[in-house]
Amino acid sequence: SNRVGLLDRGNISIYPNPVTNGIIQVSVNQLIKGGLTFSLLNMQGQEMYKWEKREMFSSASQETLNLPGHLRGSFLLLIQSNQEKAAMPVFIH
């Protein structure tokens, strides 16, 4: 896709999933203008944790997100740019 700043779930990968060590690696394989916000939501839609990355993401950027140790279960990782958002399932053991 040549659209800059639009999130496409096909260009986002999360690993390891399920998460076993409290660390999520998120790869975004597209150009994003501006920063990204990552929010971990529980299945009721409540925000459990949030990370803001203000720098510009280039193609094939990778972010490391450290999770609080007490979280277990099924969650959604909401990834938001200035105009778009994508949600990816995350399983934490």
Please tell me about this protein's structure.
Helices cover 0% and strands 48% of the residues. It has no helices and seven strands. It has strands at residues 12-15, 23-28, 36-41, 47-53, 61-66, 73-80, 85-92. The strands form two sheets. Strands 4-3-6-7 form a four-stranded antiparallel β-sheet, with no helix packed on it. The protein has a three-stranded antiparallel β-sheet with strand order 1-2-5, with no helix packed on it. The protein starts with 11 loop residues before the first strand and ends with a strand. The model is unreliable at 1-5 (pLDDT under 50).
Comma- or semicolon-separated keywords:
93 residues, mainly beta, four-stranded antiparallel β-sheet, 0% helix, 48% strand, globular
Number of strands: 7
The overall average pLDDT, rounded, is 82
Strand coverage percent: over 45%
- Major β-sheet profile: 4 strands, antiparallel
- State Rg: 13 Å
Q: Write out the strand line-up for the largest beta sheet, numbering strands in chain order.
A: 4-3-6-7
Helical content class: under 10%
Give the helix/strand class. mainly beta
Mass-distribution shape = globular
End-to-end distance, in Å?
A: 34 Å
Low-pLDDT stretches are 1-5
Which H/E pattern describes the elements?
A: EEEEEEE
Précis, in short:
Strands 4-3-6-7 form a 4-stranded antiparallel β-sheet, with no helix packed on it.
